[in-house]
Amino acid sequence: MTTPENAFQDLAGVFSSRDNKVLELEIIPSSLESSYLQDGNSIGITKKALVQAYTVARQLFIKRLMPMSEHDIRVELSEKKTDSAALPGSVITEIMLLFDCEHLTACTWRKRRLLAAVTRCMKDTDQASTIHLLETELTLMASYQCSPLHRHTKSPTMWSHRLWVLGQLLRIQSLSREALLRLERAELDIVLRAGELHPKNYYAFNYMRQLHLLLASTSTDVKDRSRWTVDLAGILVNPVLDWCLANPRDISGWAFEKYILENFPDQDIRADTIGRALRFARDVGWEGESLWSFVDQAVRHFDLETVVDNVLRQDTQIPVSELPAGQSGSPKWPWKSRLARARVYWDSYGQSNDVQ
Question: 51 near 9, Cβ under 8 Å?
Fold first, then answer.
């Protein structure tokens, strides 16, 4: 039978040796013979064992970490802990956040630790260790946010912390335009993975909005700041649209796609994006509200009614009187008028619309 100390040591060993790797963390059923499983970077632990590990970590946090001054944190950063009795405070808080991703006190302690490193970095010429520390923090967040952990993937605390860490990294690291674009694209992959694990993940996509604004304000060698903002949005248009078409029920994804188009003032690209969404809905008979809300809002916002006319071309217009009750384009549900028009198209051309 696993004891709290054993459960804590199992997880402490994983996090202590993680370095900069992204782990896949999962809660496994208690019916399995073992309460802890590891296969490479994939870690499984039962809920009971995680609770046991958390109780030990919390006791250590209250006893060792909470009383620490800024000087103590700087000393802790400079020391290399090798024995299990003197585990780094970072490992203790990592276990706590695995159990409770909204533990603000543990998260704040990690910020204090990183700030101490950044402050030290500003005074030293060697920035490599601090950059590595911040990058390791980002991979820790990715371990939480890209694992099948229901709360972590949609945790406002985790996403806010990730944005803060990236902000600190950009403060001390001068990146080229190409490097910033690669960074944004890599962050999008993390957000899309979190969106798959937790549908309608508002916090993940809102993080991408905030990241776009952060990168747009970052000092680069680009003279035209408005053009830089457009470039940052441009590389996201197609990847996000592909994801939305694979997850057409996800309103958060569609809302983010509209945000990208608002920051990418190319009417041809906007028309092509809306057209792809419309053709998908037309060809598979999709009636879901999320996609049609995107189409309606984007068409009206960007004045692209002709895109709908081209995709759902009819010999005759649909009389308002023939639209289904409550779907005549009322201000409350304007997207339903678009769907009603598509239904007439399906009826006219024999398109099945069984897909919901």
Answer: no
